[in-house]
Design goal:
Distance between the termini: 99 Å
Number of helices: 11
Strand order of the largest sheet: 1-2-3-5-7-10
Largest sheet: 6 strands, mixed
Length: 297
Amino acid sequence: MARNLFYRAAKVVQLSMFTRLARSRSLCTQTPAEPLTVRHQNNGIRSITLNNPKKRNALSLSMLDSLRGNILADIDSDDLRVIVISAKGPVFSSGHDLKELTSAQGRDYHTKVFQACSEVMTLIQDIPVPVIAMVNGVATAAGCQLVASCDIAVVTERSTFATPGVNVGLFCSTPAVAIGRAVPKKVAMEMLFTGNPISAQDALLHGLVSKVVPEERLEEETLAIARRVCQASRPVVALGKATFHRQMAQGRDAAYATASRVMVDNLALRDGQEGIRAFIEKRKPVWTNKAEKVHDD
């Protein structure tokens, strides 16, 4: 009797050990979740890749938080000169994750989603370095908004752009903010009312994108622009970008007053004077890339 109890106890212990071992092996072999965005930086160029192709790179709340974090990381570092946003897979971004927008999520959650999206879009325009969209595929709704929010957009011939929210009962009102400031009013309204996609060439014609290139040359052409940006003075570019966006929201006279004042501020920068001296002396400028003033206001 005692011997049988011993064998049973030993068997239970053995089975328990096998179970723990199996669980341990299962945990070890599980593939860790891939990040929603991937960030790399080299020679002043930061590359941020939307990395959720299985969900068409939808701008879920988690994706927006990840994108915002990768944009803001060391944003004031002198080593950062330009950001390039691209995507993995055939869809640049399909826009918001509609599963997050059902009634089950509730109004507070919906508000949080659109606040996060608006923050990312305005952040792109408010940071001191240019942001380039590198697009090879479909960009719809908030994905199209992301392209429109970037300072420059280089796209392939196969890329298309649309705001199809009206067809699923959710008008693309927030994408309209960025798109309506990038293309003529009537073009924006047709996109918003019909949801029909426009081609890369039409997007170029109407000002939604900067350049259309063959697919095999997309990275080359984008990096050529990024490297050219890196050759300029960081504080001069930062001042210029901030001023451009500010004056675009103003009337003509106020815009000229703003721009004129900033031109004088630019001349007070050490790099501003270095550029002028280099031009006069017929040599390449040597930038400090610091927002230092050479003379007082």
